[in-house]
């Protein structure tokens, strides 16, 4: 069986090893993150949530996933 | 009886004039309960990274329903216009929020706002369609500039954030009140119920309170106290107070004294 190639990306400052050609939506599901409660930035550009299925991740990509927390 | 004295911000109408922060509480249930008791219809929230390694952490939106309570995303912790803009653009994506609280800090010790960065950000955000409620210094000139660039509410500090000192510069707040028709909301530095009443008696449209409730020994009781303090102060302001007089004036009639 052909071994899947892994790439390294950063998610919220942490390095993750994921399969090449993974989409953002696949990663979000894997991380168990509720999509309707977050905003996502890929390499400092805000991503339109409707386009998540189409965007594949590349080596050294930097993702930021944010949500609301308590604050004054 | 229908309550006609409503707070209007960016064409949205609110019954409560108390805005509450959601930070510094012991836990989410405590925060949610205090907000409920306070009667607040607007709460400030911060934008932060999702904890990707521990997904068991509670989520604010599970405790405070953004369909029932208006979320006011803030830029707490931002020290530049660039950071603030990035934060609020992200906030807008989460749920389509356009009403936001801008806060660009300039000093880590006293947490005073950097008004040059704040002014710059207000202008950019307004052009992008945001409705910007602006945390600012109690400076009438800056307040006017913010209004000129499109702020939808002026929110001067009473005292440094979390200090609990109450309104330090009543004169400036009065001047700002006289010069603007925008909603004027005292943000930061209030410590107890009388501080909130004072702000309302001075004609402010509302107050924003976080630490004074969250860090009180009994946050629920303080939330209730603040609720009534704001109502009392507002009614007192609307009632038209008596003239101040250095001499006494008896309340009981002289006629019929035995």
Describe the overall structure:
- Chain A has one domain (6-58): Ubiquitin-like (UB roll).
- Helices cover 10% and strands 38% of the residues of chain A.
- Chain A has one helix at 24-30, and strands at residues 6-11, 14-19, 39-42, 45-46, 62-70.
- A 5-stranded mixed beta sheet of chain A has the order 2-1-5-3-4, with no helix packed on it.
- The radius of gyration of chain A is 13 Å and the shape is globular.
- The mean pLDDT of chain A is 88.
- Chain B has 258 residues and is of the alpha/beta class.
- Chain B is 37% helix and 17% strand.
- The model of chain B has no long low-confidence stretch (mean pLDDT 94).
- The A-B interface holds A 11-14, 31-34, 36-41, 44, 46, 49, 64-72 and B 21-25, 28, 31, 44-53, 55, 59-61, 71, 73-74, 76, 86, 89-95, 161-162, 188, 208, 210-211.
- Strand 5 (62-70) of chain A pairs antiparallel with strand 4 of chain B.
